[in-house]
Amino acid sequence: MVFLLVGCGGNNETEPSDTKNDSNMNEESQQEKESDSTEHASMDHSSSGEVPENLAKEDNPTYPLGSEAIMSAKHMKGMDGAVATIEGAYHTTVYAVTYKPTTGGEKVENHKWVIHEELENAEEAPYAEGDEVVLEADHMNGMDGANATIDSAQNTTVYMVSYKDTETKKVVKNHKWVTEDELSPVE
User: Fold this and answer.
1) Which residues pair with 25 in a beta bridge?
2) Is residue 49 part of a domain?
3) Alpha carbons 50 and 164: distance in angstroms, whole number
4) Which residue range forms the structural domain that includes residue 31?
5) Least C-beta-crowded within 10 Å: which of 18, 45, 127, 178?
6) Is the separation of the CB atoms in 141 and 99 below 8 Å?
7) Does residue 50 lie in a domain region?
């Protein structure tokens, strides 16, 4: 997992070719990458592609597996306008949540998205705005096990997608989740 975080650290600077300072520059560059990956660890939205066992596949999704769509999601920089390849389509209740990371730091407000099957001991009925839950999602560092409040709930089709970040040009694999209303056909 660490290699993904470093790979998506966002450090786009190139090193000078001055050979007598290469050793120092490499050490400084590595420290910058490690620092940047720590600061931006929560922005790495790649995943293994594993989904909860009880997550229901969408039988007839608007965007079938392997098709492409344009994202209008703004969960993180580089998503809006990116061409997404559909890796999976599922029918569930999706939530925006506010939570305090288990790793410390600032409260994350209105995080989009966590699905019903990623909540600890989830009841059968969907949760409503204001309900308190415990997250089992691991999309971001400090999310798994965090206490959260439901900000909104929507019964819809969610998609796992892969795409090239429009800003960094890095490939994000198996991003969880994008809702159907955040996608539009490729023209």
Assistant:
1) none
2) no
3) 20
4) 2-43
5) 18
6) no
7) no
Per the structure, how many domains does the chain have?
Answer: 2
Residue 44 pLDDT class (50, 70, 90 cuts): low
79 phi and psi angles, rounded to 5 deg: -90, -45
pLDDT in tens, 120-177: 999 999 999 999 999 999 888 899 999 999 999 999 999 999 999 999 999 999 999 9
**Neighbouring residues of 127: CB distance < 8 A, sequence distance ≥ 6:** 93, 95, 116, 119, 133, 150, 153
pLDDT band at 9 (very low <50, low <70, confident <90, very high): very low
Q: 51 in a domain, yes or no?
A: no
Compute CA distances 110 → 4, 87, 89, whole Å. 24, 24, 23
Instruction: Say if residue 172 is in the same domain as residue 95.
Output: yes
